[in-house]
Design a protein that fits this description.
The structure holds two protein chains of two kinds.
Chain A lengths: L3 E6 L9 H14 L1 E5 L11 H4 L1 H18 L2 E4 L2 H16 L1 H12 L11 E3 H9 L1 H7 L8 E4 L3 H4 L2 H7 L11 H8 L3 E2 L18 H17 L4 E4 L2 H9 L1 H8 L7 E3 H8 L20
Helix pairs in contact in A: 1-14, 3-4, 3-5, 4-5, 6-7, 11-13
Chain B lengths: L6 E10 L9 E10 L4 H12 L18 E4 L2 E4 L5 H8 L2 E5 L6 E3 L2 E2 L2 H9 L20 H11 L12 H5 L6 H11 L7 H9 L13 H5 L6 H14 L7 H16 L4 H9 L7 H9 L15 H11 L5
Parallel strand pairs in B: 1-5
Antiparallel strand pairs in B: 1-2, 3-4, 3-5, 6-7
Helix pairs in contact in B: 3-6, 4-6, 6-7, 6-9, 10-11, 10-13
The chains are: A alpha/beta, B alpha+beta.
């Protein structure tokens, strides 16, 4: 098989508040024999907030990021659900609307770039499932996670709007009964926990504006996983991770019940199963102690 | 063309409750042979006609126009007369839970008190506000492009599917919800409407929460008419800025702060963004920030990366910005 190679859009948190996400991405890529070319020119995707202020500017900036992936002739891989949403949404809107694409390219021309629409955009979770395959992961597992009940937390921006998301990856995913992360848990040898909140919102995007709403959503999610007898949670989104890992105090207060679980990044879970060391995966960077290793 | 009708056995667990008689709701089980031709509304009809005449639900047009029959199947808001049983079984399997849109608002079985929905709907002034001359000399021409702007939003049938799928509506009872905001946009985008700024100013008020949307896309996912409410909420946000109605609050500063942060480094300065958004209120984040710092989750200013070719980003921000604050 030809070596898999992607253009990596790290997003902002991987370089700041979730350093362990960057560490585990690189460790897992190495184990899987994936080559990642980091898009060091990329800017922030706007995280749906710049989009609230200046929609056109956010399109131009995201198109610029994609243009760099196109220059490499590679599929862009994201490691954050919100980066995935905003980048894939930009691609979708520009590919569907030649007039808008021309307007954006007029701006990009000023800096010698062009958005062509030649690169696909996919989240690392789906790159693993679509391009490597769960069977291959199963074969590669050296430390099966068989003693753990693991609660998948999908994160909104990987599964909704499903019409857009199902254009970006090959394995069909339902927004109401998503399976990708459950399947990956099983491939890693773990027991997947089914609970109502697994495809619900963590509240991240209103943490500043509506802290109570955000805290209730975080609390409900962790409580749902705990009631499902989960030992820990796993998520493909660093923003969900931040909310679930660092905001437990507010979440507990908001729902009137003490909630806390270790929350691993998808890459950390795969890394553990593939035999990476906890240090390599940055498990020491969590607030909710990862004490089961 | 030959079209084969298949049947399969489905177990329905149906929410039953009569607010006048029951202390608590309960679930009744019905096992039925379901054909591939049926929609969810057919099942509601069969429960009433074949099993229990007291079973109550709203229905009228049977054609996805009146918006009366929205309920939840396995937690998913759906318009009963449009939703194919085949799709539901494909999605959820052969055990289906039938519930009203909102259990806490249940009056009788599938019928809920939709009062909060209508109150919020009415509060956005869901009508054209315009001084129409009594004897106009010519028609008010709306170009196809102008009509296109509001077309999608105009398709709303007020079924409430999005409103009761919205997690914020469940938590914050003042929150207007996706349907009301989409309806507000419908009139905001109408070139004939004269109340443009006044309506926007009302929407910007803290309480109703046009800025409280969590961006979960649940509303877009459930809408049976593809109104895409979250996109309309985003467009209202854009309008608040372009029309100069937005005032400085944590949400508007947060949105604008992204631009400033990107202009500075390309990559976001997370701490700087929170400071810009919160102002002096940032002190409330110090306990969590301290814990994060101890775990190596806060980058020091000198460790925050800067995008390569930052000059390109800065040039594009200068040439492509369309909003001012």
């Amino acid at each position: 098989m030809e070596k898999l190679k992607y253009a990596l859009f790290t997003g902002c948190t991987a370089k700041q508040s979730t350093p362990e996400q960057m560490m585990s991405t690189m460790a897992v890529a190495k184990k899987l024999g994936i080559e990642l070319v980091e898009l060091t020119e990329a800017s922030c995707c706007g995280a749906s907030h710049l989009q609230d202020y200046d929609d056109f500017l956010s399109l131009v900036l995201n198109a610029r990021n994609i243009a760099y992936a196109e220059k490499h002739g590679l599929t862009m891989v994201t490691i954050c659900n919100t980066c995935q949403l905003n980048t894939a949404m930009t691609k979708h809107r520009l590919d569907e609307n030649p007039e808008l694409k021309a307007k954006v390219n007029e701006k990009l021309k000023e800096v010698g770039l062009e958005y062509k629409g030649t690169s696909d955009i996919t989240h690392f979770l789906y790159a693993i499932i679509d391009d490597i395959g769960l069977e291959k992961i199963k074969e590669m597992v050296v430390t099966p996670l068989s003693q753990f009940n693991i609660a998948p937390f999908y994160g909104c921006h990987n599964i909704r709007p499903s019409e857009l998301q199902n254009k970006t990856h090959k394995t069909a995913e339902s927004a109401y009964r998503p399976t990708s992360l459950d399947d990956l848990i099983i491939a890693c040898g773990g027991q997947n926990v089914d609970y109502e909140e697994k495809n619900k919102c963590c509240g991240f995007h209103v943490e500043l504006q509506a802290p109570h709403t955000a805290a209730v959503l975080t609390g409900n999610a962790i409580a749902g996983a705990m009631d499902g007898n989960a030992d820990w949670m796993v998520t493909p989104c660093p923003l969900c991770h931040l909310k679930l890992d660092t905001q437990t105090h507010h979440a507990s207060e908001a729902i009137g019940r003490d909630v806390e679980l270790p929350v691993l990044h998808m890459q950390q879970m795969v890394g553990l199963a593939l035999g990476c060391s906890p240090e390599e995966l940055g498990l020491q960077h969590h607030l909710a102690e990862v004490d089961f290793i | 063309m030959e079209h084969k009708i298949t049947t399969q056995k489905v177990n329905f667990k149906v929410f039953r409750f009569n607010a006048d008689e029951d202390y608590l709701p309960y679930y009744e089980n019905y096992d039925m042979e379901v054909t591939s031709e049926e929609v969810v509304l057919d099942i509601l009809n069969r429960i009433k006609w074949d099993h229990d005449g007291s079973f109550s639900y709203r229905r009228s047009c049977r054609h996805g126009i009146c918006g009366a029959c929205a309920i939840k199947v396995n937690g998913r808001s759906t318009l009963a007369c449009k939703e194919s049983m085949n799709d539901m079984v494909d999605l959820f399997g052969s055990e289906l839970v039938i519930e009203p849109l909102s259990i806490k608002r249940a009056v009788k079985d599938m019928i809920i008190d939709k009062g909060d929905f209508w109150e919020k709907h009415d509060a956005i002034h869901p009508f054209l506000i315009s001084d129409v001359e009594e004897h106009p000399e010519h028609e008010h021409i709306v170009t196809p492009e102008e009509a296109e702007e509001l077309n999608e939003a105009d398709l709303c049938i007020q079924c409430g599917a999005c409103h009761y799928a919205c997690p914020v509506v469940e938590i914050n009872e003042d929150y207007f919800g996706p349907a009301a905001f989409a309806k507000a946009y419908r009139f905001e985008a109408d070139v004939r409407d004269d109340a443009h700024k006044e309506r926007l100013e009302e929407l910007h008020a803290e309480k109703q929460g046009v800025w409280d949307c969590v961006k979960c896309f649940e509303c877009a996912e459930v809408c049976p008419k593809d109104v895409n409410p979250i996109e309309k909420i985003t467009k209202l946000h854009n309008m608040l800025f372009t029309e100069g109605v937005a005032t400085s609050n944590v949400a508007t500063r947060h949105a604008v702060g992204f631009k400033h942060s990107i202009e500075k480094r390309g990559v976001l300065d997370e701490g700087g963004l929170v400071l810009y958004s919160e102002g002096p209120s940032i002190v409330k984040h110090i306990p969590v920030a301290f814990k994060m710092f101890k775990k190596g989750k806060i980058a020091m200013p000198w460790n925050i990366p800067t995008s390569d070719n930052l000059d390109e980003i800065q040039k594009l921000i200068k040439s492509s910005s369309t909003a001012k604050f």
